Amino acid sequence: MRALTVLGIETSCDETAAAVVRGCAPGPGEILSNIVFSQLDAHRPYGGVVPEIAARAHVERLDDIVAQALSAAGVRLSDLDAVAATSGPGLIGGVMVGLTTAKALALAAGKPLVAVNHLEAHALTARLTEGVEFPFLLLLISGGHCQLLGVEGIGKFRLYGTTIDDAVGEAFDKVAKLLGLPYPGGPRIEALAARGNAKAYPLPRPLRGREGADFSFSGLKTAVRQVADGANQADLAASFQQAVVDILTDRTATAMERFKVEFPDAQSPALVLAGGVAANGAIRGALSQLGSANGFSIKIPPPKLCTDNAAMVAWAGVEHGQLGLFDGIGVSPKARWPLAGTPARGE
Ligand code: KG4
Ligand code: ZN
């Protein structure tokens, strides 16, 4: 297959990002540029992402970020094979900014457009970095999502489990807020936990040992709230992080069993971690161990490619482009866009 060069645009949350990637499925691909402008400072005073502020900041910065991505890659619009943009799921104002910009660039340059699902972009990142073969088991853990999926191919996902309340990154962010730490809380909790005692506070592990691979974090967050007053911060952060690690490993172990039944021919399949929370060292370590104990090879993109970025969007564009899967200029942005339906229970 011919290598494709694709410009990717990401604006679904609080990162304004553009990147140019060249490559061929199954990867690895070459990241020619990867520009990420984080709007964190604009949102920090509010303790979370404010959609209207995010959309306005994307409008103000995106043109410049795209120009930087093209120039850092040393390519012109005419050198591209396609323009790809996240077209959901996410904050609709931001998604509209990115997708509309991509449409304008594609029309102006006479290039095809790829409307990328943000979750699929996270899912495929391990192919960009390491050329991971299908099928693989995916643990997608971010600020908005917490899912276990069997990934068979482009657009072919089986949902094994999902959160029934909060996403895991959301739990990190809410617990950080309880401890008086600034947004985003994940990295702060991890740093605090490194010097705390994980056994100091007994916290619940909701759904552990239950059938299926669904997640729940709201009971854990409530339990943290009940002991937060006057608590030793490092000990509480460590105890919380350990509870999250235990929940994730238990649910992933269940999904591994189901994956092995559904894909009996997969030799040493990959367990891929994706999403911002996959930047967490304790989680990476525990899942690596679980993977090797169960015959899975663990693949975790570097932290910079786990959090939101446009290289993953450009790579999804490469994979779609090679299959001839382009989108019409009339394609709509979507606030909601699940990768797969509700998990089949009791199987
Ligand atoms: O994938 P992402 O950049 O954005 C989306 O939600 O799509 O993920 C952001 C989330 C935030 O909730 C943040 O607190 C969390 O990832 N996160 C972490 C760490 N780094 C980022 N959580 C735990 N430990 C980390 N080191
Ligand atoms: Zn994301």
Q: Could you walk me through the main structural features you see in this protein, from its secondary elements to its overall organization?
A:
- The chain is an alpha/beta fold and 347 residues long.
- It folds into two domains: 4-125 and 305-322, 2-Layer Sandwich (Nucleotidyltransferase, domain 5); 136-301, 2-Layer Sandwich (Nucleotidyltransferase, domain 5), CATH 3.30.420.40.
- It has eleven helices and ten strands.
- A five-stranded mixed beta sheet has the order 3-2-1-4-5, with helices on both faces. A five-stranded mixed beta sheet has the order 8-7-6-9-10, sandwiched between helices.
- Helix 4 crosses helix 11, helix 7 (218-228) packs antiparallel against helix 8 and helix 8 runs parallel beside helix 9.
- The chain is globular, with a radius of gyration of 20 Å.
- The two termini are 38 Å apart.
- The model has no long low-confidence stretch (mean pLDDT 94).
- The protein binds 5'-O-[(R)-(carboxyoxy)(hydroxy)phosphoryl]adenosine and zinc ion.
How do the helices and strands line up, and which of them pair or pack?
Layout (H helix, E strand, L loop, with lengths): L3 E7 L4 E9 L6 E9 L1 H4 L7 H23 L8 E7 L3 H18 L3 E5 H13 L5 E6 L4 E8 L2 E7 L5 H11 L6 H9 L24 H11 L4 H30 L7 E5 L6 H13 L3 E3 L3 H4 L4 H12 L25
Parallel strand pairs: 1-4, 4-5, 6-9, 9-10
Antiparallel strand pairs: 1-2, 2-3, 6-7, 7-8
Helix pairs in contact: 2-3, 4-11, 5-6, 5-7, 5-8, 6-8, 7-8, 8-9
The structure holds 5'-O-[(R)-(carboxyoxy)(hydroxy)phosphoryl]adenosine and zinc ion (ZN).
Zinc ion (ZN) binds next to helix 4.
